[in-house]
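HUMAN: Can I see a protein plus its fold?

ASSISTANT:
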Amino acid sequence: VTAAGQGIGKATAITFHNEGAKVTATDINNETLADLNKEYPNISVKKLDSTNNGEIKSFVNDIDKIDILFNAVGFVHHGTILDCEEKDWDFSFDVNIKSMYFMCRAILPLMVKQNGGSIINVSSIASSLKGLPNRFVYGASKAAIIGLTKSIASDFVKQNIRCNSIAPGTVFSPSWQDRVNQSPDPVQAKKDFIARQPMGRL
């Protein structure tokens, strides 16, 4: 599980663990990984930058077998195309999609060798599924995840490898809370987020 130090990644790592899986949780943040490991000592933790192909290759060299790869790394850029500089575009695509390209490309040979596996990529409702205000490059990069996922699924189905993406709406998480806190009026920002949810809550 990538980005397993907090949010969706952490919740996923814990759920897999509770279902009896042998879990390796990776993240770029050593502190959040240490907190997870303290809470769940049976979850192995490993500092890993999913945008660094060299680190990923080294990490995969130590793996003999893998049944599931869960790609949860993500970054939310706020703004329209006019707010998105080239550096913002590059950073968002590196974090949101290139990381998954690196991880999938490194892990797939193991799954092919063992004739099976499952890859799960976290996309978003803000993607090719729906356009949301002020999510220009986030939506573009999350749409790319859906394309990557469908392509891998098609190419490797005969090797018993499944590749799926999930598309969450707004999820209460530390990164979401940080974005709300950075707004001019955090209380109103939270109300606005909730008002946009059809179910009336995060």
Strands lie at 24-27, 44-47, 68-71, 117-122, 161-166. The chain is about 50% helix and 10% strand. The CA atoms of residues 153 and 199 lie 31 Å apart.
